[in-house]
Amino acid sequence: MRDNGGSGRWDGGSKQALQSRGKASLKEVSISRIYGLFRGYIWQLTAIIALALAAALIGLIPPLVMKEIIDSAIPQGDKRMLTLMIGLLVLLPLLSGLLGVWQNHQNTKVGQGVMRDLRRTLFANLQKQSMSFFTDAKSGEIIQRLTGDVQAVQNVVTTVVVSAVTQAVIVITTVVILFVLDWRLAILSTIILPLFILPVRKVSQIRKRLRGETQRVRGDMSAQLGEIFGVSGALLTRIFQQESKQEKDFDVLNQKVMDLELRLNLVGRWFGMVLGILGPLGTALIYWYGGWNVVEGTMTIGAIVAFTAYLGRLYGPVGTLLNLQVEVATALGVFQRIFEYEDMQPDVANVPGAQKLPPARGNVAFQHVSYAYNKEKYALHNISFSALPGEVVAIVGPSGAGKSTLIGMLARLYDPTEGAVTIDGQNIKDVTLSSLRDQIAFVTQESFLFHASVRDNLRFARMDATDEELESACRQAYIHEAIAAMPQGYGTMVGERGHRLSGGERQRLAIARAILKNPRILVLDEATSHLDSESESYVQAALDELMRGRTTLVIAHRLSTILTADRIIVLEAGRVAESGRHAELLQHDGLYARLYRTQFEKVMA
Ligand SMILES: Nc1ncnc2c1ncn2[C@@H]1O[C@H](COP(=O)(O)OP(=O)(O)OP(=O)(O)O)[C@@H](O)[C@H]1O
């Protein structure tokens, strides 16, 4: 690697950033990290757990009441006591039911809150990622992680903490009461508990693997749907009539999701069945041993009834606790995917102690800049040139020469692997991203518009722009008349990608956006699409207006741009092949002269 004074991309932090970007981290998710999600909800959780405990303790009373009815009230013919006890049997479940409703509501609130927080952190971290992440990832996959994956852990998030505590309390209190009632029966009923634990490990492993796989396939499915039903994908499908091929491709993933979900469910049912048969086994043992003792006269019938009622409170919660463990293990694969996005480091970020870029004069310089998308291939090699304030530098070169990569560096869409880009002598890597991007407007070839009104799309450039400012910018961009003629004027909604607007109108809206931002530095990728001569002249006029008085770096496709450019940089395979003004370069009769004859002269014709 060439030495360039320490800005090499493959060393230090940026190398790690690339490795962590979009790739599965093998780091296992710790349970404590999942519990950490609840940190902000400690007080609500304490209240919920207190309520759940109260409901659990109330639940311990009815079997004792039943024992009293059978062993005392009925044999003694005490009708008053009988009525009192029946009253208790009705009231206690009512009370614990009411507590349960409130607790459940609070529980859901905490769970939903945790999920909202998760989505918020993921969203914020995705916003921090640099462009390279988005060019590598599929948008459907991103959406799936942010929504589908978070949804997939809902069950764990909403029930895990509360269930773990309350069920554990129920189990402990029940075991204590069982031993108080009769230690022999208590030993008999707890002796089968280890049998419950055996299947858990195996089931957890299988379900974790299946859940991870299901979410991966769902991610693929979302990515596929995003591509197929995006405007460009839908267009391509129709033009090439590939509807049935896509249906087949979709069916493959669709079927996979179904098969995986079926397997997941089946494993769950087998587990449920094993737990289900262990419960009655315990009850049978108690009736056998207890019945034996009642016959011998060493135990009362009420004691057996109360005992078996408690068994439900023992085996049920033990099953729930174990199931919880399986649920958590199942969700671990999904948590892994979620945390992977949360931990992702952007490879373009503010350096520690980054300063604000002062209002720029517009002196731009590329100093020995190289860039590699990956280790194998450099897209740019040792690029050096500069632009004085107000100058226009045109970048030309064959397709794939590195033009887009080069202009992207000025807005730090990518940081140089080697070398530096400076504005007014300051390395842009050392200034804050926001202060840098505040002073640069970027007009891309494909002018993207959000599904929102024309006004809102324009305000994306500057939220506080007044209606008058919007209109003035649009007049300068020669688009005001066209907007005014739309059904709702500036309030007209434009479709995703602005498909209700013509190519020329979209470009001029993008130019108006840049005018509204009014930056010192302009980065421009001129559209190659051939517009009719009227649109073309409007767009040209709008561009002339936009470039006036600004330092402009432009991928030039228009003859007028290269003719007026202060400097033309001719790129070839990532290197500067030639540079100079139009006349000099023509005289040189090299790559530029060839490009000029094949591309620009034709445009002029
Ligand atoms: N995200 C990426 N990952 C890996 N390689 C990339 C990526 N983007 C571009 N490249 C490669 O880098 C090189 C330069 O690409 P770039 O888009 O900058 O060229 P360009 O001159 O703008 O091309 P065009 O005029 O066709 O748009 C090409 O070889 C391209 O294949």
TrEMBL record:
PROSITE patterns in UniProt: ABC_TM1F, ABC_TRANSPORTER_1, ABC_TRANSPORTER_2
Name recorded for this polypeptide: ATP-binding cassette domain-containing protein
Organism: Paenibacillus foliorum
Domain ABC transporter: 364-598
Family matches, as Gene3D superfamilies: ABC transporter type 1, transmembrane domain, P-loop containing nucleotide triphosphate hydrolases
Predominant localisation class: membrane
Cellular component terms (Gene Ontology): plasma membrane
InterPro entries given in the database record: AAA+_ATPase (IPR003593), ABC1_TM_dom (IPR011527), ABC1_TM_sf (IPR036640), ABC_transporter-like_ATP-bd (IPR003439), ABC_transporter-like_CS (IPR017871), P-loop_NTPase (IPR027417), Type_1_exporter (IPR039421)
GO molecular function, one term: ATP hydrolysis activity
Membrane-traversing stretches: 41-61, 81-102, 155-179, 185-201, 266-288, 294-312
Key word Oxidoreductase present: no
Alphabetical UniProt keywords: ATP-binding, Membrane, Nucleotide-binding, Transmembrane, Transmembrane helix, Transport
Membrane topology: Multi-pass membrane protein
Domain of life: Bacteria
CDD domains in the record: ABC_6TM_exporter_like (cd18550)
Stretches assigned to the ABC transmembrane type-1 domain: 47-330
Compartment annotation: Cell membrane
Keyword Zinc: no
Taxonomy of the source species: Bacteria, Bacillati, Bacillota, Bacilli, Bacillales
